[in-house]
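FYI - complex with 26W, inputs then prediction.
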Amino acid sequence: MTKRSSSLLKPTEQLLDKPALRRGIANHLHYTVGKDAEQVTDRDWFMALAHTIRDRLTERWMKTTRRYQEKDVKRVYYLSLEFLIGRSLNNSALNLGIAENFRQILTEFEMNESRIADTEAEAALGNGGLGRLAACFLDSLATLDLPGEGYGIRYEYGMFHQHLHQGWQREQPDNWLRYGNPWEFPRPEILYPVEFGGRVVEYRHENGQAAHQWTDTEHVMAMAYDMPIPGYDTDTVNNLRLWSAKSSRDFDLEFFNAGDYIKAVEHKNLSETLSKVLYPSDSTSLGRELRLKQEYFFISASLQDIVHKHVQHYHTIENLSHKIAIQLNDTHPALAIPELMRLLLDKFYLTWDRAWELTVNTFSYTNHTLLPEALETWPVPLLERLLPRHLQIIYEMNHRFLRDVAHRYPGDGERLRRMSLISEEGTKQVRMGHLAFVGSHRVNGVAQLHTQLMRDTTFADFEQFFPQRIVNKTNGITPRRWLNEANPPLTQLISDTLGHKHWLKDLTLLKQLIPFADDAAFRQQFRAVKQHNKVQLAHFVQQRCGIILNPHSLFDVQIKRIHEYKRQLLNLLHVVTHYVRLRDNPQIDTVARTVIFAGKAAPGYAQAKLIIKLINDIADVVNHDPRIGDRLKVIFIPNYDVSTALKIIPAAELSQQISTAGTEASGTGNMKLALNGALTIGTLDGANIEIREEVGADNFFIFGMNAEEISALKRNAYSPLFYYHAQAELRMVLDMIAGGYFSPDAPDRFQPLIDALLSGGDYYCLLADYADYIRCQNEVTQLYRDSEEWTRRAILNTANMGKFSSDRTIKEYAQDIWKIGEI
Ligand code: 26W
């Protein structure tokens, strides 16, 4: 376009004052939604508000892109199969600083703000911790003005919706795009072919060297959708690019001409399944073909895009690792390593050594779990069929790597077997963790203990061979989402008390609250905020579940995916213990408790689904026992998602973080709850250890064995039956569950859970930790009676959580791993 015509195309400036916003909303109701003022619904209002924000984001987004280009900055690309963004309306309005103006405008029109906000479908493109971490990181990158872009998949169906049917989990598809997604910009012109299958031909390149061509492949097209990611209190707006699968041929002409219309569209349907649905499992790698195709589809499109943009700008590939860094969010995108090698070898004709140097210097890999069943492996025959050239490259990587290992440790065949990228037991499998490790210059864990366990266990051989490669980057959460948006009254109280709002950008400033813990008037205000939030949650629970909560009871919360290692069942053992004590001693002097659970189970995870049923069966008995009254209530809030978390977390007083020591890599819910003034009852696991260090041991309820004690216990033939026989109360509780006390309609229902504990070896050591957990819960009860002391400790939690801002985490990645700087 000529200079003259492009200046003619200058858009109107999109201002943030009330008249401009009002005009924006009116125009969008009219021209975007296409409705008369009389007909507009809450959803129409949502659409108009979203588009009004989007206009403002677009301008800043383009400026940000231009700024990065002019300054020729090094960029980071965050590759993740999951981005658990949640809703965007409120968050974007807050980050842009127009939330208050919106509120006033909606009041003028007598519109109900929260009803409008509730019409927005969540972008639930993730399972849990790993996906939400990616979303927090995007917020921090933009807020810190760092040139970081996310790449992911635009799943047509996100995380399933959870319903309860007689206490059992039922899954329903999440058709989140049904009413359109106002935040996305489809980019039909940004389209890349992704190849599968075929065969590899060796030939001699004109430079005289042997070269490889992957041919006779099937194609699927990847089309880009962009989503603007606004920083808080800055004009920076970064990009999240999500890929959608499109058929490469709308109609297969051959079939079409032969008159088979259905066959002709079949290929279209098949190829478009690749971005159809998020795999709803966050703990087991199933080794499914469709999942492998999804992973390759995603990284192939992302790398083509990254390399294309790079070469277009620099006209060379030689400076790739100086200008870009790529972070792999777990091994799910780890095929990017052989894929970049393939591009450098087969398209740019670099030598192996040069290609390898560029690749390793570009990539870094984050490990999020050490649970063996969650570590990805792919069968060699599957790779051979779908990605034959990649398999060749992986074999060559392995050959060279093992040659180096053998050189360093001559004669140590056992070590070679352990370190190989290929496991040889049964069907050969590619070990994606080993692949990601060898192909990255930095590998990180997500909390200190987790990183140490990586060094000592899963990656011990690798730590020896590549010292310094493993580093720690303790997770964080964004205070914009998890305080500013989640908890407006606490945000207000903090800002009023400190006299500024800088703390939302430098969370360590919360330490200025420490002296106020000893100020009775402040404690009173802090308690009033918590009380207000508890009442709000009680309203919500009454609406969603029809159950009335006592807002003066202790709100005891465990919200996270349902998994045996997270030990929701241990929580239940305490609930039943407490129930029996109350039942049998009506005059016992105790504090009222409401035990709140929420979380989804992977659809194929039978034990986890049974735990949900047990929670609900116990709730049924306890909540209807007249001898208990409202001294104890148990509640399972269905369909836990980001929006539900925003409602529960500000109201929580006790945060349960009770995984078996050594199993929870970090946890991030633990951070959200403590930041909002909940006291933690927790094991020495994941980031709990660092939270306790920061908030002070006196302000944290710790119990149970530490990771070393657990591993010693297992080494020494742990016997759960010993604990069962030694502890009468424990025995009674387990017998009640096993004997059908909570399931008179099906007395054997929970036998599989009991078997896992008593005859299955109690892998997660619930019985070993039971007694200390009960002791610790009694301490909680005692302290809750002293509401001044409880509040003092709650304030000290909030005040000392500054370390856990994802801004700190991202700064560490930027400095130590990506080598990118502020601009
Ligand atoms: C291939 C199946 C699969 C899918 C996802 C296996 C494993 C995963 C994730 C690694 C599970 C996950 O979300 N891990 C969590 O990551 C959080 C962010 O680092 C941590 O805080 C949690 O402790 C960890 O469980």
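The first strand starts at residue 75 and ends at 79. The chain has three domains: 12-72+96-120, 73-88+123-473, 479-803.
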